[in-house]
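A quick aside before the break. I want you to see a complete sequence-to-structure record at least once, exactly as it would be stored in a machine-readable document. Don't worry about memorizing anything.
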Amino acid sequence: MTPGLLPLLLLLLLAGPPAAQPAPPTCYSRMLSLSREVTGDAQRLQAMEPSEACVRYLPRLYLDIHNYCVLAKLRDFVASPQCWKVAQVDALKDKVRKLYTIMNSFCRRDLVFLSDDCDALEYPVPVTTVLPGHQR
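That is the input. The structure line, written in tokens, reads:
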């Protein structure tokens, strides 16, 4: 063995195994991340000072992919006639269409609906965090 090869071998051994590739997204994880993205985009769009008054009349989007009403909510949002030719709204509608297609076609078997509370999709559910040891 040549003297220059030994340090290289030692370096390779100390570096450890090559990093594993992350697992590809599942249908469920893709639906979940896209629904969160759509909800965030919709909230930002409605919170900012709209250059178009029509943004105020768009349906609210607080999506829960486990709520059966979410499919109708997505359809209603895409079909809403407000805000024709507003770039941000068009981009959001494209994401909503993509999510609807994923949920209704590609991932239909992976989806489990846990509720059918349509009112829950109108207003966000407050997230509460309970610190360990501070339970009621």
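Two observations worth writing down. Helices lie at 5-15, 27-47, 70-79, 87-106. Residues 27-47 form the longest helix (21 residues). We'll return to this after the break.
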